[in-house]
Specification:
Two copies of one chain form a homodimer. By secondary structure, chain A is an alpha/beta fold. Chain A is built from 18 helices and eleven strands. Among the domains of chain A are: about 190 residues, Rossmann fold; about 60 residues, Arc Repressor Mutant, subunit A. In chain A, strand 7, helix 12 and strand 8 form a beta-alpha-beta unit. The radius of gyration of chain A is 21 Å and the shape is globular. The C terminus of chain A is likely disordered. Chains A, B: Belongs to the DprA/Smf family.
């Protein structure tokens, strides 16, 4: 426990007490920071709506146990204060949440198993998802697409379920690519049972197994739905390979649509029940038809072209911001700090939204919070680092540390 | 020959001398009528552009031979002056042509084999077309769709080719429905050889085999492309079941799009080369994805709901007219005739377009040409009839004749 920063300990506690998504808690943490938020939750002095989200478990302080369990799995808790936090992909959640979509509340932290950096894995990631009761055709296509995308340097994100998900992870592994499994249960849940070996392989071969649920959390249907927003958010686009009519595909598509991410669907024989959901998505213009890896790369490539290079100044980055975030950003100045209230007055954006948007802008390097208040961030001014536990374990610390600071 | 009206003889001659589509000839016939047009073509006194379209064959008067050959096949020449002329569906060609699309020039007449009335067959028709080198999956889908549509009272139109076309015709026949084969050669060409029996079955079992090419015309690639506009025009919508990347599907889709008809495409496995064309059409929004007969009926039903019932006054019928046609229609009066020049001045539509649009409006019963010029047609005022040859042969003339006049 010693060596873990107060922020990491606070977030481990909050991740444990609140069932995601926890919209009020997310706003509260953004406003007062994780340490004060955890303190207020523990003492019961937090706002009413935060208390409602955290009341049931707030006296259940299992942080020590969680880190011990994670240690046994070789897992770490990645938090927004870490450089490897996938701030850019998750900004989509933050912005959707600030538009009032409660179910898009961003995660307070992510338990992560595997050697790769989470932010790098999510950089040009494509999600490949679909039916558990997939056909041979569907599993072949999922495997082929995942192989081809991984071979081209795209990480393949999926949900580790049987059927399409498993085929996607295996396809990426076969190409020696990066694949990320996002679970709807704790990393130690051993679920699904038939994929325990696959999950070990993913974590051991350069991929990641991640979850916003603390160790010991059992799988549940609602958790898979909540989890789907992370699959959508962490990817540049989601490919639905096979899906029945009433399937998670619609949920995935809705999530991705809300987050402004692209949804792609693979057609199949009209005689196949597991292609019906894909055809519905395409017919309803909720998804773009993709028939080949090239089609997917085309779509994702177009998106990547719009995403600013992390190494370059974010001149065009504000293109991706929502209207409120843009107005807040425009009211910031380089040399003079302002209070959230002042920004609300100047921008005309409601104070509650300003409070939600500012941390998102900070995470992405658009804004910073100094002594005099919020202001435009200095170019390339972000170098948060934190030594010790909770960081990915790599051999040869020095070059890695340098890389982790984003100075390379 | 005696008993054939001058219009029918004139059109038989014109159909023979001009290779379709013959845009200048179509305009000329619309302006001066078929008898004078044929006379001018024969004598070489027609306008230059008409002469270019007809010069090569104008001395080749095979009308007698054509009717004799048609008689041996049990075929007739259906012309715009006949009540069974499918004026409403073909109006799409007339309007596209009047917008300057030369390749949409309407046919001058159609050689027809089979007992049904052509206008009735085309009333709620759906085209089902696709690859010759179809897969078993594609042929099954084509057959199933055709069966289901025919069973619901939709005629199934196709091109009589091997593969998808043949499966579509056979599916409709299996449902005891109406199917129409539109050929790119003369009705007596015996093409494709393997479908001669099928074509005989179509003509003998309540369907129709039609062509704008006179008897003896051999098949040719360009004729199939020209023929495609008729398949598109005669149908409310076209379903492409399977198509390779560089196939006639794109041509069919373009034709249908130009004519304001809906194009539908059936998806298939992304691993199948003959589904690539369908997927391209869907991805490019050139076609609506259909995965079931219900999907097709939905799309076609929506269209039918917009199409005025032939038995009712055409109150909403002008909804289907192009902008120019609407403006021309609006400048017509009930009690006072106007010249084309006068209408052009009043409507602001160029005189050449007015001249092309007026006959189309007349064909559809929106306008009529009286002694004082063009005027709004009297409600239900169309009762052109013509006895004798060139009409479909039915048993029991009386009720049929009544039906044919549209008085039922």
């Amino acid at each position: 426990m010693s060596g873990l920063s107060p922020e990491r300990l606070a977030r481990a506690y909050l991740v444990r007490v609140a069932e995601p998504p926890a919209p009020a808690l997310a706003v509260f943490v953004a406003e007062v920071g994780p340490v004060d938020a955890a303190d207020a939750v523990r003492k019961g002095t937090c706002p009413q709506r935060v208390a409602e989200e955290t009341g049931a478990r707030r006296e259940l302080d299992l942080v020590r146990d969680d880190f011990a369990a994670a240690g046994r799995l070789g897992a770490r808790l990645v938090i927004p204060e870490d450089d490897e936090w996938p701030a850019w992909p998750l900004l989509s959640l933050q912005l959707a949440h600030s538009r009032g979509i409660a179910s898009a509340a961003p995660p307070l932290g992510l338990w992560v198993r595997g050697e790769s950096r989470l932010d790098e894995a999510a950089e040009a990631a494509v999600a490949i998802v679909g039916a558990r009761a997939a056909s041979g055709y569907g599993e072949n296509v999922a495997g082929e697409f995942a192989y081809g995308l991984a071979a081209r340097g795209h990480a393949v994100i999926s949900g580790a379920a049987y059927g399409i998900d498993g085929a996607a992870h295996r396809g990426a592994l076969a190409a020696d690519g990066v694949t990320v499994a996002v679970l709807g249960c704790g990393l130690d849940a051993g679920y699904p049972a038939g994929h325990v070996v696959l999950l070990n392989k993913i974590a051991g071969q350069g991929g990641l197994v991640i979850s916003e649920y603390p160790p010991g959390t059992p799988p549940a249907r609602h958790r898979f739905l909540v989890r789907n927003r992370l699959i959508a958010a962490l990817s540049e686009g989601t490919v639905v390979v096979e899906a029945g009519r009433r399937s998670g595909a619609r949920n995935t598509a809705t999530s991705a649509g809300v987050l402004g991410k692209v949804v792609m669907a693979v057609p199949g024989p009209v005689t196949s029940a597991v292609s019906v959901g894909c055809h519905d998505l395409i017919r309803d213009s909720a998804a773009t038809l993709v028939g080949s890896i090239e089609d997917v790369v085309d779509v994702v490539g177009r998106l990547s072209a719009q995403t600013p290079d992390r190494a370059k100044p974010r001149a065009r980055a504000t293109d991706g911001l929502g209207a409120d975030a843009l107005r807040v950003h425009e009211s910031l100045e380089r040399r003079r700090g302002k209070s959230a209230e002042q920004i609300a007055t100047e921008s005309g954006v409601p104070i509650s939204r300003v409070r939600a948007v500012l941390p998102a802008l900070e995470l992405e390097g658009f804004a910073e919070h100094g002594e005099s208040g919020w202001q435009l961030s200095k170019p390339r001014g972000r170098t948060r680092t934190e030594a010790g536990h909770g960081q990915p374990k790599r051999q040869g610390g020095a070059p890695d540390d340098k890389r982790r600071r984003g100075d390379a």
